[in-house]
Amino acid sequence: MRSWSLLFIIAAIASVGVFVYAPFDPEWWMPHNVSLTSPLHFGADVDHLFVLILWITGIVFIGTQVALGWALWRYAARPGGKASYTHGSQRLEVVWTIIPSAILVFIALYQMGTWSSIKFRSAQPKVKPIAEVTARQFQWLIRYAGPDGKMNTEDDLHTINDLHFVKNTPVVIHLKSKDVLHSFFLPQFRIKQDAVPGLTIPVWFDADTEGDYDLVCAELCGWGHYKMRGKVTVHATQKDLDEWLAGAYRAQSQSQIVASAGTKGSN
Amino acid sequence: MTPRFRLALVAGVIALTGCSDSFNAGPIDYAPSPDLVKLNQEAKDSAGKPVLKDGKPVMEPKRELLNRVNKSMTDVFGPTPQEMVVPKGAGLPEGGARLADQARVGTDKTFGPVGWHQYGPDGKLKGDVLIEGGYSLYRKHCLHCHGVSGDGAGPTSAFLWPRPRDYRRGIFKFTSTTGQKPTREDLARIVNHGIGNSSMPAFEALMDQREVQQVIDYVIFLSARGETERRLIEEASTEDEPKDAKAESPINKEKAEEIAQSVFDLWKTAETEVLNPPVPRTPSTRQSIANGKTLFLGLGTPKLECAGCHGPRAKGDGQSFVPYDMFREVVFGGDPAMQDTRLEEVIEREAERAVEDAEPELAEIKSPGEREKKAEEIKKAKAESVRQLWVKGSLDDWGNPLRPANINNGPTTQYKGGRRPIDLYWRIAKGINGAKMPAHAQLLKPEQIWDLVNFVLALPYQPNLLNDAPDTIPAATSTPAVTASASSK
């Protein structure tokens, strides 16, 4: 029955192989990171933690798999083999309890700076919230202040699943939920925050590259969960954003059919 | 090989290959419409009773009719969703090719799985390239609510309120046109942005605009198919006389084609019937908002009954509809299929309560027999009035319960048909097709409609606007506002 150990050894080698290969294939690795060099650079911090933990767990994984493979191979059932009985080793148990505990404590302390800069209210950038994002089954209702710069007034700009801001400028949004738990997830920005009914939660982030990115829901919120996909557009300059806001506001104020324009809706 | 190993092998093979869902090759059929079900039942009922003509048995007319309808529909629209035929003169872009990115060309009878590229533009086989197309996009995004045949009865529909649209009647709620058909742009707006306060999601970030147009092609195809079938059966039901099987029947491919053509013509003319407000929007001044308020409360000329449905505080609680608590109990009180049972329970309870309320009045009647009779009368009258309120006031044209919009819901107020001033102008001027919202274009001057639009848009941010409104607006209680009544004040 020694051949059984081969199965476990091959599985371990394949798993390690996948992780060694993955970083070289963008399809296999994490989503493109656009928060590396921006002022808040959360993406860089989060990926750093992720890779660090991957190294720790990778080394531990290889160590335990080698031990497992060796034990399976060495102590496979043999004709005439005799079992020996042991009450275990207290020293060994203490060692393999203390080492993981120490690693956990290290990770807990090491990540604190990143956690506090992303989640602690004291770290919130002192800027006016750019938008209020309300999650509902199954879309993101987004409200901008409109021309008067004030929220919850008649000239607010409303969009659906469409968030815009400027690169290299920290932005704050106010996150709400209308019905159940949702989770505001910007994979390319490494930002994730639950939306909780009854709470208004500020979320802040930024990006270093202009472009179109994803906004998805990361909390199974019902049958249409997978349809809660939005578009995040990062503009190169404030002027570009202002132009977009003005255009969207014009579209929202439309009161006549514009000849040839072919109304494009609110954006 | 041990059984355990064999099991591991099988599980492993499945895990490695995965279950491909790229194409479900099983047969997919259009669900029969209610008219077809009825016809089928009639055919069954009359089965075994051959009709004699000149002493010779001829085919049973109902069965024959059913067959003719089915045959004609198959000829004109194709037998299944996987084998579509684009009717002649459908006017769909690219001859309907975007429905599935492959179409029956000339005499070529080969069909591949829908949604897979069969031929490239050069006519050469392109192989198994997965490509979008109205049908496959519809299956991916829309079918689970709107159903295979566009009947609004997909598997998830039972959990939703408002119910998903049944396209087969060819009526769409939020249109910019003067008729019941929307323009392609109206549909695109709904697909892109969804419908607020309903379960229709926004697809702008899930599909590109080319795909949205393909889905619209397919929705129009399904709608036209359903409407054609409906009209064909209507035509068939007028054909009562038993006929010789050989005699010319009016139900045939040509008839179906003719009907399909007229349905598609309606879709084409809708594009030219967009209502543009004849005067530009009145600036949203205090005066304009006040004018709108006067009209809304039914205190202006002409007298409108907005408050009868939307309520004196515009909270969507007018007396022409059943009270919200009752609505909630009936619609959301449990299994959607048991809605009618719950309605009967509520009616019974309301009737009992009416008798209790009339207790002092009843006590004055001396004779027990008379008293009993009077109580029975009160009970009956109340039950009837609640039933009327429900059936006439609280169901839309598809038979689904509906509520008037709450347009005074603070900054979170949602407008199902869109929040642009032009959207609200359309809602007021043209009403909402299939729902209780009436058209006002004939009744009101365009300036008055703009006053109402300004009032409606101001309301969520000026919650005190209606504080001085009377608690109840005296109005005709029997029917919701269809025309303004001048009888009561």
Mean pLDDT reading of chain A: 92
| Counted beta strands of chain B | 2
Assembly annotation? heterodimer
At CATH's second level, what is the architecture of the largest domain in chain A?
Sandwich
Radius of gyration of chain A: 26 Å
Q: CATH homologous superfamily of the largest domain in chain A - what is it?
A: Cupredoxins -  blue copper proteins
One letter per element, helices H and strands E, the order of chain A comes to HHHHEEEEEEEEEEH
Largest sheet of chain B: 2 strands, antiparallel
% residues in beta strands of chain B: under 5%
Structural class of chain A: alpha+beta
Intertermini distance of chain B: 90 Å
Helix amount of chain B: 40-55%
- What is the global morphology of chain B? globular
Order of helices and strands of chain B: HHEEHHHHHHHHHHHHHH
Q: Are there runs of chain B of 5+ residues with pLDDT below 50, and where?
A: 17-23, 103-120, 125-130, 475-489
Broad shape of chain A = elongated
- What's the total helix number of chain B? 16
Molecular structure report:
The complex is a heterodimer of chains A (267) and B (489). Chain A is α+β, with helices and mostly antiparallel strands. Chain A folds into two domains: 2-77 and 89-119, no CATH class; 127-266, Immunoglobulin-like (Sandwich). Chain A is built from five helices and ten strands. Chain A has helices at 3-21, 42-74, 90-110, 112-119, 238-252, and strands at residues 131-136, 139-144, 157-160, 162-166, 171-177, 182-186, 191-195, 201-205, 211-217, 230-235. In chain A, the strands form two sheets. In chain A, strands 3-2-1-5-8 form a five-stranded mixed sheet. A five-stranded mixed sheet of chain A has the order 4-10-9-6-7. Chain A is elongated, with a radius of gyration of 26 Å. The N and C termini of chain A lie far apart (66 Å). Chain B has a two-stranded antiparallel ribbon with strand order 1-2. Chain B starts with a helix and ends in a 31-residue tail after the last helix. In chain B, a hairpin with a 2-residue loop joins strand 1 (51-53) and strand 2. Chain B has helices at 3-17, 34-45, 61-77, 134-141, 143-146, 184-193, 209-237, 253-270, 286-296, 306-310, 324-332, 339-357, 359-363, 368-393, 421-430, 446-458, and strands at 51-53, 56-58. Residues 17-23, 103-120, 125-130 and 475-489 of chain B have low confidence and may be disordered. The A-B interface holds A 134, 137-139, 143, 152-154, 156, 158, 160-162, 178, 215, 223-224, 227-231, 251-257, 262-263, 265-267 and B 141, 144, 156, 159, 185, 188-189, 192-194, 199, 201-206, 274, 276-277, 280-281, 284, 411-412, 419-422, 425, 457-458, 460-461.
